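As promised in the previous annual report, we have extended the structural survey to additional targets. Below is the entry for Sodium-dependent transporter.
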Amino acid sequence: MSAQPREQWSTRAGFLFAAIGSAVGLGNIWRFPAVAYEAGGGAFLLPYLIALLTAGIPLLILEYTIGRRYRASAPGSFRRMWRPAEALGWWQVAICFVIAAYYAVILAWAVRYVGFSVNLSWGDDPDGYFYNDFLQVGDEPGAITSFVPGVAWTLLAVWLLTLVVLWLGVRRGIEWCNRIFIPLLVVFFLILVVRALTLDGAFDGLDAFFSPDWNALTDSSVWIAAYGQIFFSLSVGFGVMITYASYLKRRADLSGSALAVSFSNCSFELLAGIGVFAVLGFMAAQAGVPVDEVVSEGIGLAFVAFPQIVSQMPAGAFFGVLFFVSLVAAGLTSLISIVQVIVSAVQEHTGISRTRAVLIIGGALTVTSTGLFATDGGLYLLDAADHFINSYGVTLAALAVLIVVSWYLRKLPQQQAEADSSSSVRLGVWWRLCLGVITPVVLGWMMVDSLTGEFS
Ligand code: PFF
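The corresponding structure token record, generated without further manual editing, is:
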């Protein structure tokens, strides 16, 4: 373990900005609207809220109490709790490594699309432009033959920026970066949503988003999608919030902060859903087709559907730039948090300096993400990595943490006391009920169900 004094956030607001920055990311803007729509539109909101209240917020509070109490990275915190539990932290570090490697690539696409928006480079075929011209997806699925130069160079720039921020440290790097990008993101996004709502056909889009499909509630995959989205979106289960909370002052308000972060994240997410669907309604009106015919999957939504809209709307280039800059700001602050989980764990475990840790981890990540995902055909790998990590990797991590912490070690009362000692909101028995019973049972069932679905 390193002997250097632990870094700290300068103020509570600094921590909140960073935690919100981690939570609000590409997941809110391109993942949520597509997942929600696919899982039954309005009916998705109910499982989503249940997942938020019974799993998302309680787990977020648990991660905060673990980080602040044990004051270390994810593996270090679990180790201090119970030696063998260190493995849980390393599992989370491994997940973060894979996510960082592909998340950075999507971010690099978004950076390129800021430029493409200026002169509407995609012409009248955004679909072909994205897959063939830009990503050069080969004819053979899975074929990985060479770098896509435009992506690879941008990716290197994304990595350089991320690593510089991490190298500057918690206060001068992470906190500052979030203090700049989060307010910018909020302003840009509000402009975009207001504009979207004033487009022709916007309300047909909202209708598609909010019209409930109650049958979907009996479908277990809808519930799985809701839990998966809540974990990904709140950055819960990845060790991020343990790491960030380890830089808190002793007296920091934990439960109040968790509520503030969840509320901000979910409002942003719903707003993104509203904005995206309003715009899809506009597209449908232009094409004279029903809204569900213009909806495409997550990745396509941002890089295929949006360019199309940008081409069609008045002053599209301006709004295109605003949209992709928002995507970059949201994604960058999340990427930083994911990599910090790895850097802090390695730094503590080996005792090396921050500079060295950033160089080693950054180098390994840059090579992995450029070599695997910034190639023609890397898209297939990216899709598979996203699916498996988020369906199984994170669920398994969250489940294992709950089994160890609440069932085996019976630490919930102690962690509750840790939170209540300094929080504006006191945790009641519901918190222990959620983490001790409801969530582990639901997660266990989800794992079995989706695994059997995968192989049937
Ligand atoms: N919460 C981020 C998003 O919604 O895009 C993604 C994310 C960040 C996932 C940090 C995992 C993580 F550790």
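The chain has a mean pLDDT of 90. The pocket of 4-fluoro-L-phenylalanine is lined by residues 22-23, 25-28, 96, 99, 232-233, 235, 238, 240, 334, 337-338 (CB under 6 Å). These points will be discussed at the next consortium meeting with the crystallography subgroup.
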